[in-house]
Amino acid sequence: MLADALEHLVRGIVDNPEDVQVTARSARRGDYLELRVNPADLGRVIGRSGRTARALRTVVGAIAEGPVRIDVVDVDRR
């Protein structure tokens, strides 16, 4: 559910919504969501000074039942 919500929010922000991928995993300290977007959209997802990424974390954290971690992954980095 959290992955679907994050994916829906990010698809509305980016220019290439078909490239958005969210992978959900459970960890000891809560849920872990890994967000991958087109490299051209990375700046849109992060935003100025990280404001957009912080807002996405706040919204997803509000609907989560426990702690959740969201990582935006640069697809060029391995």
TrEMBL record:
It comes from the Bacteria. GO terms for molecular function: RNA binding. Gene3D superfamilies: 3.30.300.20. One of its GO terms (cellular component) is cytoplasm. Keywords: Cytoplasm, RNA-binding. It holds the Pfam family KH_KhpA-B. It is found in: Cytoplasm. Belongs to the KhpA RNA-binding protein family. NCBIfam families: PRK02821.1 (NF002761). A probable RNA-binding protein. HAMAP family: KhpA (MF_00088). This is RNA-binding protein KhpA. The gene is khpA.
